[in-house]
């Protein structure tokens, strides 16, 4: 039913569909509001109530526990297996596609593309069992790498750590690749926060040409690099037009540089309407995990070796995209744009 240009959802929706919406809403709420909400709540408790000791006690806990996000995290397989995440995966739906077996005797760097507005598919695929990662890749433990600032919010950090997520810092990634044994896969959104500003429906633009740190770490630890491309991730939200050089993009770039995260101006659908809101659109996302690139261990790799590995990786990523794009809704004329 449409009223004043807004298409409302029907009242008679199957329970399964409602549960899927709850799953998608959970991630959106946590991503946008949980962290800041708890921070402001603790400030309120400290300044305006007699429960000031609660944030003080938590501050002591944080001081004691702050390094865990750089030391392998605090994974809970029970939390990762919640049915909530399976419903979230079915909402779009999401699909995790294996092209080659990964042997548990090795460690891997999953180079994930594109970032998207909120990295919906990457979170569900690698920080939960929503798409059955453990069944698709038996013996492999995924560690989703996210901005360090995510682990500074009270309570939210403790909840997020249960997913197996860790900081996307050199120390954190090296810990997983060197001190957690074998069979580990660190999943890194290579394009970072800046790439989120390119997340327009149909866009295939990746920020990668200057992103070579993952190649250096792969060489230093002999970790295989695995190209990962999520077809449809950029289609989950509409974003305000922000072409390079526009006032909007210049302002966004400034805030990204100052704050460390990208202030994307986006909208999706609502809980009770299909026209406007913060929920992602119900559009399928197919995440293709490519063949691992074996990397020799070089304790002190030269810049030339890093550059060569980066060039080889970019070629492998383009090949992955080209060989699967027609199956997942990308036209023959469209190609990856590497910036």
Automatic annotation (TrEMBL):
Family: Belongs to the diacylglycerol acyltransferase family.
Species of the source: Aplysia californica (California sea hare)
Compartments, record wording: Endoplasmic reticulum membrane
Membrane-related topology note: Multi-pass membrane protein
Database matches in Pfam families: DAGAT (PF03982)
EC category name: transferase
Keywords, comma-separated and alphabetical: Acyltransferase, Endoplasmic reticulum, Glycerol metabolism, Lipid biosynthesis, Lipid metabolism, Membrane, Transferase, Transmembrane, Transmembrane helix
Superkingdom of origin: Eukaryota
Gene name for this UniProt entry: LOC101847661
Transmembrane spans: 24-54
Protein name: Acyltransferase
EC number, UniProt record: 2.3.1.-
Biological or metabolic pathway of the protein: Glycerolipid metabolism; triacylglycerol biosynthesis; Lipid metabolism
